[in-house]
Design brief:
two-stranded antiparallel ribbon; TIM Barrel; four-stranded parallel beta sheet; globular; 165 residues; alpha/beta
């Protein structure tokens, strides 16, 4: 932190943020320093079924931090029946949404939590889907029936993250 604070004082950087994939670590980081932003997984299966993310999001929002969302297109852990070499998306350690309607549902849910920005998985095709939806103006808030659909999908999923007990 001393190096980062010196770099900010010297005008070399403007903002200091952190990334975490663990709620305990994210909460601890936010308690120890007044970060400008947090990069954290905020997809609807983990948020709804895994109860993972709401506390981090609230803490960051209350503090006025930028919120950069990862995993908005994450569906679930890869099923054990699918061998790694048979996975369609070999750059993703989880099974992403790849149906355009479910991709839209995931992006729309996360964007309207709200967040400052979202990052897509590392496959060009998935990135392109997200960009096409954004350019078409399709990233609108979910209505009640779409929220119910997201909840149903989440309940049937195996989320990649869960709240620690």
């Amino acid at each position: 932190m001393e190096t980062l604070l010196k770099a900010r004082k010297d005008g070399k950087i403007r903002y200091i943020g952190f990334s975490a994939h663990d709620e305990t670590a994210a909460l601890a980081a936010q308690e120890r320093f007044d970060f400008d932003s947090v990069l954290f997984p905020l997809g609807f299966p983990t948020w709804i079924k895994g109860e993972f993310g709401p506390e981090i999001h609230k803490r960051a929002t209350d503090a006025g931090r930028g919120i950069l969302a990862l995993k908005a297109m994450a569906h679930q852990n890869w099923p054990a029946s699918i061998k790694p070499e048979d996975r369609r998306w070999n750059k993703a350690w989880y099974e992403p949404f790849d149906d355009i309607d479910k991709v839209a549902l995931g992006l729309r849910f996360t964007l309207h939590l709200p967040v400052t920005a979202m990052l897509t998985p590392g496959h060009w095709e998935l990135f392109r889907m997200a960009m096409d939806l954004a350019q078409a103006g399709a990233l609108t808030p979910l209505n009640d029936s779409e929220r119910a659909l997201a909840e149903a999908i989440a309940r049937e999923s195996d989320p990649i993250f869960h709240k620690h007990a």
